[in-house]
Amino acid sequence: MDFFAQQARVRGSSRRLVLLFVLAVVAIVATIDAVVWLTMGHHAAAGEPAASNLPLLFASSGAVIAGIGLSSLFRIMSLSSGGKAVAESMGAVPVPPDTRDPQLRRLRNVIEEVAIAAGVPVPDIYLMADEAGINAFAAGYSASDAAVCVTRGCLDQLSRDELQGVIAHEFSHVLNGDMRLNIRLMGLLFGILVLAIVGRRVIWFGGSGNRRGGGQVWLIGLALMAVGYIGYFFGRLIQAAVARSRESLADASAVQFTRQTDGIAGALKKIAILAEGSTLQVANKQEVAHMLFGEAGTFNALFATHPPLLERIRMLEPGFKEADLARMAAGMQREAASPPPAPANGPLAAASSVPGMSLPPILTGVLAGGVASVAPAFQHAAAVQQAIPTSLGEAVQQPESALTVMLALALSLEAELQPAQRRIVADAFGDDVQRAVQAQVSVLAALAPIARLPLVSLAFPALRQLPDGRQQTLLRALDDLVKVDGRVDINEYCLARLLRIHLSEARSPRRAPVDGVKKLPAARDSVILVCTIVAAAGCSDEAAARRAWLLAMQQAFPGEAIEWTPPAAAWQAPFEHALDDLDGLSPMAKELVIQALLRAVHADGQVSVEEAELLRVICASLHCPVPL
């Protein structure tokens, strides 16, 4: 599935949503104005001079628009903390990072694998513990404040591959920009529904009409309530239309992530077979219906937020027949009657838990310092995750110990630089933290180089819990540590840049950048510079770097004669400005940039650690996933 084309579709959906919402508000305002004019307007009798009703109608229109607008804004602001707020509003509870529950551990492992493969921070993980149906959703404004929530039914009923398919489906919404649109849709629907609530209150306070003007007030309240519910009806139609257009694309994205259809197709089949299906019992389920993996309630063609189940299955398995469900149901009954095999924590758990047993050769190549291009992204992620020492994995689960790990990652191996770096850490955080950082250095020495930035992704949920002041101190200390020798190498830069991006967006989720509109020629110099840095980082000599860079230029600007200029020694600041410039490109222009970078990266047939880390940071800066 083309991420960049999907981003363009989401932008189109946003425009259509705004247009439909404006039309709905105009219709509501016109209806309320008509009722106000009939009940309270001046109607001149024969021989009386006509009086203008415009002030009354202006006041009525203003009140209705303000009510809808302020209510929508209130609801959106109430969700300003991102995905966490949406998950908790549904009664979900967080899954502890150090959980020992086998099902919850499996869930965390799967989500961490998907996050590493996509090059995004691990999201907050939530469980709807009382929901037996198979369902899930992702919420937030960006990848840095996202939350992924699953039901108990997902854990009880799905195999690991099926759970992976569901999580990959939800991550496609994280990566494609659907989540910001989903939160806006929640706010707009709430704004329209508020009219009905206000109408009920007006009727109650208006009385039975015994007081002067009470009948008019009662009629206006009735109109508000009727129009509010009618507006909510059409709002639900808008909600369903917007959601249906994206769900099939998310299913296809899940297949692209996992490289197999059995997982997500199996989850959809179980929804069709089981009595609970994907139904939720929580009272406000319709508010998030457009975010869910499956229908929140009984399928209704008018309000359905997803295509029919059989249609979704056949999109993944064209030869599937409805009769196959009966055979699958019988097989599930036989499996339920036999004792299940002992579950493994991950795809590599058996190999990694037995002393002396090595990883498969293809994955050993992943950890040797480079990236084996033939290994699928999930195998890369699983290998990296399993290669992280247990003590490090536990350390990044808690805020303070995660902070010490990040500082230890930035320390130099050169003995002459270490005293100055220790002073920087002690001045910023105190001697106790400095000693804890030193203790982590020996552990990090055994870490595969390719696992450095994935470790940042795993640490992010804990780092996000640090107070704002401590986060800022961490970022300043990282900058000081990497500049202590007067130069900044690629690995140090990538660590500091990646943390700065994710922490800043997590602090202010609603301010996370949205898609730009610039065309590629408008950022020509920035494209050239970024491709130059990547080409130079991946090649051992200038001639090879120039060849890689020329391939990138042919991809981005075919037919143009562009002169190669080696990167300057002080490359960091220009590179930062170039990345910020490229983030303002349109989705399709960003796709051209990523394609050009991939040409440079693959020019020599292999991917170095420096190239992999730069690509991960560039994708984070451009708010797009790492190419699978």
What's this model, at a glance?
The protein has 628 residues and is mostly helical.
Structural account:
This protein has 26 helices and 4 strands. The protein has helices at 3-40, 54-78, 83-89, 102-118, 152-157, 160-176, 178-206, 214-258, 262-273, 309-316, 324-337, 349-353, 361-367, 377-387, 390-395, 399-409, 418-429, 431-444, 452-463, 468-482, 490-507, 524-537, 542-556, 572-582, 587-601, 609-622, and strands at residues 93-94, 124-128, 136-139, 147-151. Helices cover 63% and strands 3% of the residues. Strand 3 (136-139) and strand 4 form a beta hairpin. With 628 residues, the chain is an all-alpha fold. A 4-stranded mixed sheet has the order 1-2-4-3, sandwiched between helices.
Backbone CA Rg: 28 Å
Strand order of the largest sheet: 1-2-4-3
What profile does the largest beta sheet have?
A: 4 strands, mixed
State the distance separating the first and last CA atoms: 11 Å
* H/I helix tally: 26
Helical residues, percent: 55-70%
Structural class based on helices, strands and sheet pairing: mainly alpha
**Unreliable runs:** 344-375
Shape: globular
- Strand-residue proportion: under 5%
Order of helices and strands: HHHEHEEEHHHHHHHHHHHHHHHHHHHHHH
Q: Give the number of DSSP strands.
A: 4
What is the averaged pLDDT score?
A: 81
